């Protein structure tokens, strides 16, 4: 029997073969191709080209990636080892700028080196592996907890709209925005989900619709410019989306088009929930104005996915990968420690206090 997409691991470590193993998400849904990445360049490219994508999955891939690169550093002298570790870390960190999980995971790995500097390098390498495995295991627990809190915000039969893919393929299991949907599915909630196709890279069509459909969820794919229509029709009770970075005031960077969805939802009094592991909340960034937005190449808009180019040769193209949803458009930020609400400058601090307790 053919394997269901939900039975695959998004990101795996193959330590025996010194490889990071991922599903190449650029090929989905047509082809399920599992690829092994060994060099720093292969890992960097896979993140940049969105073969592995979604903030939490990028973090886990980077953690396994830096472990594998560290494993190959020849020196037994800590200072020489650490200098090369930092070089590789900065290189991986440069692959995508907006998702804070990338630097968050790499910094966790860095701390392992720094706090064990008196130990033999071979032992530090083993500790790096353990940390990367913990980052992956935590991601699964965190997504499930977000799912439980998210599920408390909706009721059986509700219509849910989501944008991009904050699903299992963007994490190690459950997803963030999809976690309440999957938990609801297990408990007979019979949600009706609307998935925005998400131009220009079609994560909603290729990944979210695929995941949910493969899981037996009632999912309807819509073009991005149809969300106002389904909301006006009264078919949507809540919007659940993921995020790449949440600033201390609640402003949120997520896939381009999220702010349009949130603005329209406000018009129709539909609550907007951002599903955010605390690893995606960046208290060092004051507001959305301070978040660096990744700009992507023109061909993603003009020709990628099309049989032929769909725009005049030479036309100007603006292709930001993310936008900022202002905090006043957000009804709640659903974390693994509970739901933060306005004023976010206070409630997000409370969430972090719970994390430390
Ligand atoms: O460019 P992508 O596909 O990596 O963008 C992904 C998103 O915008 C997701 O919503 C976000 O990373 C959250 S994933 C749980």
Fold and architecture overview:
The protein has 357 residues and is α/β, with parallel strands linked by helices. Helix content is 40%, strand content 15%. The chain contains eleven helices and 14 strands. The chain has helices spanning 40-48, 55-71, 78-93, 100-115, 121-151, 179-186, 203-214, 227-232, 258-267, 299-302, 344-356; strands at residues 11-14, 19-23, 34-37, 159-162, 192-196, 218-222, 238-241, 245-247, 252-255, 272-275, 281-282, 322-325, 332-335, 338-340. The strands form three sheets. A seven-stranded mixed β-sheet has the order 6-5-4-7-10-13-14. Helix 6 links the parallel strand 4 and strand 5 (192-196). Helix 3 (78-93) packs antiparallel against helix 4. It is globular. The termini are far apart. The mean pLDDT is 98. The structure holds 5-S-methyl-1-O-phosphono-5-thio-D-ribulose (MRU).
Compact overview of the structure:
By secondary structure, this protein is an alpha/beta fold. It has helices at about 40-50, 55-70, 80-95, 100-115, 120-150, 180-185, 205-215, 225-230, 260-265, 300, 345-355; strands at about 10-15, 20-25, 35, 160, 190-195, 220, 240, 245, 250-255, 270-275, 280, 320-325, 330-335, 340. It contains 11 helices and 14 strands.
């Amino acid at each position: 029997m053919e394997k269901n997409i939900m039975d695959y691991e998004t990101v795996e470590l193959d330590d025996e073969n010194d490889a990071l193993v991922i599903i190449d998400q650029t090929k989905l849904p047509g082809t399920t191709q599992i690829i092994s990445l060994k060099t720093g360049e292969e890992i960097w490219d896979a993140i940049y080209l969105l073969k592995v994508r979604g903030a939490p999955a990028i973090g886990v891939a980077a953690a396994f990636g830096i472990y594998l690169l560290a494993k190959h550093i020849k020196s037994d002298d800590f200072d020489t080892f650490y200098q090369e570790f930092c070089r590789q870390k900065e290189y991986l960190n440069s692959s995508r700028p907006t998702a804070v999980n990338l630097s968050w995971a790499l910094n966790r790995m860095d701390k392992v080196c720094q706090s064990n500097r008196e130990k033999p390098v071979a032992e530090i390498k083993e500790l790096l592996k353990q940390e990367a495995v913990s980052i992956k295991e935590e991601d699964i627990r965190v997504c499930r907890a977000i799912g439980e809190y998210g599920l408390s915000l909706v009721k059986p039969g509700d219509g849910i709209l989501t944008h991009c893919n904050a699903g299992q393929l963007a994490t190690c299991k459950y997803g963030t925005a999809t976690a309440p949907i999957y938990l609801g599915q297990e408990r007979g909630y019979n949600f009706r989900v609307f998935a925005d196709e998400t131009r220009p890279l079609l994560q909603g069509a290729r990944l979210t619709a695929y995941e949910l459909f493969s899981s037996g969820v009632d999912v309807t794919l819509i073009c991005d410019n149809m969300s106002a229509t389904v909301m006006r029709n009264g078919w949507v009770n809540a919007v659940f989306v993921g995020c790449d970075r949440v600033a201390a005031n609640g402003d949120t960077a997520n896939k381009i088009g999220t702010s349009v969805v949130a603005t329209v939802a406000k018009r129709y009094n539909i609550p907007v929930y951002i599903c955010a592991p605390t690893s995606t909340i960046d208290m060092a960034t004051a507001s959305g104005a301070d978040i660096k937005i990744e700009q992507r190449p023109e061909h993603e808009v003009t020709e990628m996915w099309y049989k032929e180019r769909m725009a005049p040769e030479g036309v100007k193209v603006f292709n930001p990968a993310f936008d900022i949803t202002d905090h006043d458009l957000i009804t709640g930020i659903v974390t693994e420690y509970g739901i933060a609400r306005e004023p976010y400058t206070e409630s997000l601090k409370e969430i972090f206090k719970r994390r430390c307790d």
